[in-house]
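Why this split exists: single-chain examples teach little about how molecules sit against one another. For that reason, every record in the complexes split bundles all components of an assembly together and asks for one structure covering all of them. Below is a record exactly as it appears in the raw files.
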Amino acid sequence: MRTTKLILLAMIIAFVSVTMAHAGMQVQKNQATTVNVDVKNNTDRSVLAAVKMTAFDNAGVKIGQLCKQAWLGEDRTTAVEYVWTAPGYATGVYWQAKVDVRGECPYVEVPNYDFNNYSDSDSDSDGGDDSDADHH
Amino acid sequence: MRNNNVHQLAAWGLFIAIVGGYFFMAVKFPLAYIVATYEDLVGEWAQVYLFAATMLLSIRVACFKSRFRFFFAFLALACFYVVGEEISWGQRIFNLMTPDFFEKHNLQNETNLHNFFTGPMTTTLKRSLEYLIALGLVGYGLLYPLLVSARLKLALWFNKKGLPHPPLYLWPFFVVSAYLELGFISFNEAEIAEILIPLALAIMAINYLLAMQKYQGFISFPKWQKTESIRLASQSAALVLSVIMLAFATTGASYSSSTMGPKIESRYYNGLEKFANRYKRIEHWDSAANLYLLVHEKKSGQATVLRNLYVCYSNMNDETLALSFLKKAEQLEIDSLAKDPLSVASHLSLVNTYEMIGDKESAADHLRGSLEIARLRVSMYPESAVTAYWLGKAEEMSGYLISALQEYQRALELDPGALKYQKAVLKLSRQLTANY
């Protein structure tokens, strides 16, 4: 029952609008570029999901697979950005998006650190006397 | 005006210039106040040179045969220790790495001894030491010379045994330093005390030096002649001027060096933010906003700074500008999350931003997200102190204070030297103690 619910939720949430930041744009062979996706969660439930993007060339050959886990807030659009390297030959690229609710990203490591250290200073700025001790 | 009091007037003039100057800078010129009090900048170098001067003068006094020579020898040794500690025994000057032992056990992760006992956090031990120092300063700088001049037996006994008393006119230096050491204003004012104390000791040493040069077998201060008084005054003033010049020169030289320059600049900007927080706390919105703007110019990627700018401009009744900062903070974290969607810090930052905006639903949603992500990361990296810490942060913001404390403690166990985790444990422990 729980699985069915999740699948249903996944179907609803898979209302994904893929905004190709570089749609219509050309990138050089082997060039690293960013791929931006906006995922709209139309449901009234926020979920942690794996947002998977698969790239195919003109011949339908898979040329890239990108995946990031993200928190998709209820009734909200969440932006996800990937870094992708273009293939070493000229081709059109077609993207397929898939949202896997509560899914994981195989072969993608969840970082055990946080890049965003700046956001950690709110508590220090609240005026605790500890923050006054510059040097003693 | 009596001419043989010139040295007293000069000392009081220096005292008023220093204390008044710091007060004036704090109120009108926050940037100058930072330069005059913050680490590796002019104020701290002035302390170093004043202690060094006191050390040299004390050595000179100790060379005379008198009952005070051991005291001055000890004072010289103490000043040497303080100078070494102030510059972390050259660690920052010579760009040395902190040895492992100090990294683990020193409370400020620096190569010095005093931070083994006291660190940047307020603890009972640190507070007790501060009170002890304050009592000592009042006792030695005011009571002792008063009791000696009143010919109290006990005071005279100490004096006879070799404890010199400072000239009574230096009492404002000691008493005000005692008050500043206690840090009641929370404006880094202990740094001003660390200017006043060595200056008072140096002037005291100058007095003893002259007395010993002029009067064989001197026991108590004579009534100085006019020329002697002028000499004492000019020596004190020359000392202060030399120290100021040396402090500026050293700061300038350090700043222009390729190794220390970037570090000093980074500390300076860190100082700007700290002082901005202080001005915010005392509701000096204009000064706080100006400092936050400077930090924002340098490090534009800080949502905390933008939120603080919102608070400042809101209180300055510029709602439009204030809201623009809040919107920037929101966009900044949304962009950050697009790159790193599993950042607990970014989610928590958004919680703060949405709470300020008044969007309680979004705030609650990001809080749930941060908790879920933090738990996922802890399940994947149970031995990581960072993940434990961020789970603690998410739990704390969600109101699960006890489990948050457990996570902070776990983070500290995994990385015992980390100040950030020590602070988190201490702060939340105090909060929990206060609550129950």
